[in-house]
Amino acid sequence: MEDFRKKDVLSEEILYLGTEPKKKKPRKNYSQEVLRKMDKRAARARKLFRFIKISIATVIAAFFAILFLMPIVLTISNSFMASSEIASNYGTVFATNSNGGKVYISEKVNLKFIPDMVSFSQYSTVLFKSPEYLLKFWNSVILVGPIVLFQLIVATLASYGFARYTGKLRAIIFFSYVILMLMPYQVTLVPNYLVSSWLKILDTYWAIWLPGIFSPFAVFLLTKFMKRIPESMIEAAQIDGAGEWQIYRRICLPLCKGAICSAAILVFIDYWNMVEQPLILLADGEKHPLSVFLSKINSGEVGLAFAVATIYMVPTLLVFLYGEEYLVDGITYQGGVKG
Amino acid sequence: MFYKKKWFITGMALALSLGLAACTSMGTDGGDVDSKSGKAAVEEIVPEFTYVAKFSSLSEDMGNLENMVISGGYVYAMKYDFNAETNSDASSVVKYQLNNGKFENPEKIIEFGNNGYVLNFCVDEAGNLYYVSRISPDAPGEDATEAQWNAYYESMDQNSKYHLIKIDAQGNQVYDVDFTNETKGREYFYTNQIVADEKGRVFAIVGGEGIWTFDENGNKSGEITVSQNGYVHSMGIGKDKKCYVSYVQYGNEGATTTFAELDYDGKKLGKSYANYPSGNGSSSFTKGIESDILCYDGTGVYEYSMEKEEAQKLLAWLDCDVNGDQVSAVIPSADGKIYAITRDWNANETSLVELSKMKTEDVIKRETIKVGTIYQDSSLNTKIIEFNKNNDKYRITVKTYMDENDWSEKSYQDAIANLTNDLLSGNGPDILDLSSLDVNNLAKKGVLEDLMPYLEKSTRLNKNDFFERILDVATINGSLVYLPSTFTLSTLAAKTSLVGDKMGWTLEDMMKLQEAYPKAELLQGATKDLIIQLMLMLDKEAFIDAEKNECHFDSEQFKNVLKFANKFPKEYDYSNGYQLPPLLLKDNRLLLADANIYGFEEIQSTLAYFSGDQVTFIGYPNSKGSNGCIMMPNEQYGINAQSQHKDAAWAFLEDVIDSETDDNRYYGYGFSTMKSRYEKQKAKALDVKPMTDENGEVITDDKGNPIYEGVGGGYTMVGENGEEWSYVYKPVTEEDCAIVEKLLAGATVIDVSMDEELNKIINEEAQAYFDGAKSLDDVANVIQNRANLYLKENN
Amino acid sequence: MNKKVKLSKANTNSEETVKKVKPPKRNSKRFRKLKFKSGLFIAPSFLGVMAFFLIPFCVIIYYSVLDNPISANYVGFENFKNVAKNEAFMTAVKNTATFSAIAVPLAVVLSLILAMVLDLNIPFRSQFRTFFLSPMMVPVASIVLIWQVLFHNNGAVNDVVMKFGVDRIDWFKSDQAIIVIVILFLWKNLGYNMILFMAALASIPKDILEVARLESANPIQTFFYVKTRYLSSTVLFVTIMSLISSFKIFREIYLLTTDYPYPTLYMLQHYMNNKFKKLDYQALSAGAIMMSIVMVLIIGLLFIVEERFGKDVEG
Fold this sequence. Notes:
The structure holds 3 protein chains of 3 kinds. By secondary structure, chain A is mainly alpha-helical. Helices cover 73% and strands 0% of the residues of chain A. Chain A folds into 2 domains: 2-73; 129-330, MetI-like fold (Orthogonal Bundle). By secondary structure, chain C is mostly helical. At the A-B interface, helix 4, helix 5, helix 7 and helix 15 of A face helix 1, helix 6 and helix 19 of B.
């Protein structure tokens, strides 16, 4: 009890001054007024010091923030350029000769943030004149949606299982999950192709859904958080008569909401970007998602590339903004519950 | 704040999805008939029924039938006969009786002599025959001067008369209207097609853009403009007896085809219908059997329903063993059969194909073997059709891996990846067209079957008959992986006065030549990239040490190559127009000429370029001391080692190789890879006899040169400024054969599947040097690094 | 209920407040039931992973002992020897190891620093957070365009560099290429790592920090003796995540430079991808197995370190 009181006293001081006084300097024998003035000056000095510290920090943060944002801003602003402008400014980077090979024209590349002429031509071409892009967009959605949803379901179940009981066998299985997760896709692609061919699901969306749903990635992420749930809470629930399923549903899931969101976002981003798997496993070009299409664009119509890139970004942006709160809030140690 | 943000985002997401969904549906609706949506609108063949073809040859004189129409059990067609002896022609409309799939009892309904010409005709349901004729003024006599002939041709159009004539079913003329007056003011009148509706009103396509209408009495009653930027494809009568037209319009998205009704009274196009099948250059249409319209193109026959606005594919030509490129007319008959006329120009054969619809289960199935190819190849298709027609046990199908709509590099990579996967999983094709594949790699993996045992057992082909060099190149790791049937020789030629008379030279020699004539063009069309390609084609060994698996792209020699290539233009400057090579060669403004020798007669045609000067076949520069000639095998087909039908596959290969070079059937070009047949080719080429007339006297052309049997033809090149240069093939001589032998003796066989990856690296990096962005040393180093990496990876 | 009250007041795992509940005995019936039931939860995932990851991995092992995937002759360890000796493979290993060795620690350290900076209650904190996270969700293909423009021979970065008097560098074709890739990697991953660290920093129990202050520890000492203990688990987590991402960087490199880049950019995955394209699955498999062995060792090590170091925190 004493501790808490002390804490209160201290924190008051902290709030007031803004800095933590380390040592109390012995005060000389000054008059009250002089002492007060010295205190005020000291207080102002400390305030100033703190102010400077914060401004420097802000500047650093802002600097990095600008650096981080720049490429994105560039992409978006460039998408409002007419293709002629793109060609004249970036022509040298993307120019190809008649054989389709790269060309090194010795012209300066102008990095333009603000287009000379704002034009929606790129967007109109993409959205209205070439329905293929949109079709591919929906393909992407169809492909990624189920994966995110079901992978999370399967993963939460599995991570609950891992968290509840830790034995040697479990540890080995978990460890192998981690190793399998690190395998680059080339390694598993051909065997996946073979397995899909045996299961006769080649050239259907199942060939991509199934490996995606059972990917160990989300399990890895979620187990960490599930493990943090204090054993005591579970015991409490058990005493209250809850079975395993209830514990899972009522206690673990809500507590891990943040982690689940975070995992969902990461999985979404990962699969939204997937290119090689659809190429190999889905022979029918009509079924390809936008990511495949976009990777082909880079060598073709550069003028549209920025607009398509922006459109491609938007869903991830939305998903991210939507879940950001959960993302951040959930990644804490907190297993706290309101009683 | 928190909640507001969430709702905002949800709202945005919904808006986005709705917006995109709307755009998507808008995009795919709008009547945009590009090839993709056209494909989607056509249903695939209903497997319940198949069409089975029965072939019968038509006689020679039926070979030039055009515009066939079936009406009332008769087939009507236009015929144009030219009699070389009497130098006279006859244009006629013939009527045949259609009995049991045979055209019998020909009857000439209309016939014109020398001055008359049936431009077009049509027959309606009732059997009335309409036709448009042109009567020209008399031609000047045999001994007329050239000027008189020219005058005649020029005035022909002005002084011709045009008639529209109708004959009823009994053969009585109903009317004969002279509408020449209507044609005045037009430069040249021609009608592609005419069609008559049930009221006897006639529509005629004129000049490709408009349609003229004629009333019941044959008088011109109006014009219908169809499209500003396009042309009318064809007209026809639908099941409802109305007239329809299909026309092509050029727009921003390329050509689109629309199908519309013809409105006589309104003198305009009536209602238009969507989703008319239009891929692959669809041809004319007629009324359909079940649906309204039946039309066809190079890949199959379709039925189109106007009510449902969708097309259904009835059959694919390839499945019925018909060569879609050779189909010239398709007529459905009332009993549900479809007749097609095919014309094989090479073999000069015309066939009638009778396609009957049968239940798929009743059709006797043959064992199928699959040919896998990256690109579609019409000569392969021809061979497959031949095989299918003549073989009762097996049937060949083709799988094309390349996406025909996307020719990018990535698409090619995807095609390769798909093929590789099929091979790995055991679903690979039985026969592989190796022409775009990395043969070396496949052979090393054991994908390809060793053909040597089959060759040894073969009764039609003899192993020892083949040129050893060809077999050597095609043998990888001890097994013969493909067997080409023909080869081509390729080399460079130059004036002897410039290069001396020995064949073969080095890069230094070539560079010295260019230095001696700095203003001259080394090779027509040479650009930086081309020069590099040339250098590498024959001389890779100079830079790549295969044994030690090292490369030397940072050597002085390679840098010299780059420096030399840099002297050439980046892209060929066509602004001066096409300059005729022979003229340039004469003045030493052009130093080298391509020589592609695919037949003995090509030697002389190459020599002719040099207008009589002494010529040396100097060859491609190389450091090996060879004569610089390249021997390229054509057509490489291999058998999949995992195939279950290897014998059948071999039967196909054998067929291809054997018949390719058989005397009577000469599909492709090139020298035979079999020595005995090569000799036969030579003998045949040398064996030329002048043509004689009935009295045994030699026929000569106007210059007094004898005309030889089987020799002739030629070409004329027209330059930018109108100058002409023509060449007529002359008979092959012994000297020509000797030159071929010399070339052959020293030729290097190139494995056509060159190492793409290295070329890509070199070309990509060299661009930086060519554009002046990087120094020569830098670029050479980069190339060396990357190429080295590549080699090391694949040791 | 005593326990519950304690929990709500100090919701951390600090030693004093929570009384440990004894775990049930290993062989009790309840225990076995627990084992079984939790096993059921794992079952669907396990089956799926078996089918789509484990079995393929076995197929890989199978391929690695063949001479080539089609004619399927057993050759034992031949492939492993060949691959290990292959110069290109060694280059790839060297590059990948160098990259990971540079990028992963940088990612961890820089993100920790950034997290601490943001932790200082600067204004617009949550906006900054959003900005930092944004690179993570931009798809690879979109960004490659801009990156190419920036680092092109004639691009913006070269402009800046030239102003300092240095010759222009063709970034992707030089030995400095690795810098570009590291920057790309950091750009992508700092955001997420930073958030993780911020969360970890926020959850260090304040009373411990108070105690440190009262003991007159300066910030540096506070950091090293107190904060690291609490951050260790997160550090491990971030390291593993960064390691995973460092392998994924292959896709960016591939889009920027195609199959055979300048040797300094040639990564393990390039090697595997090229082998894949050429049907050399045996080499691919051998390389993959060797790579997994190395990873097993590294990750195993990391796990053990975390066990030891963070044990007293987790209790």
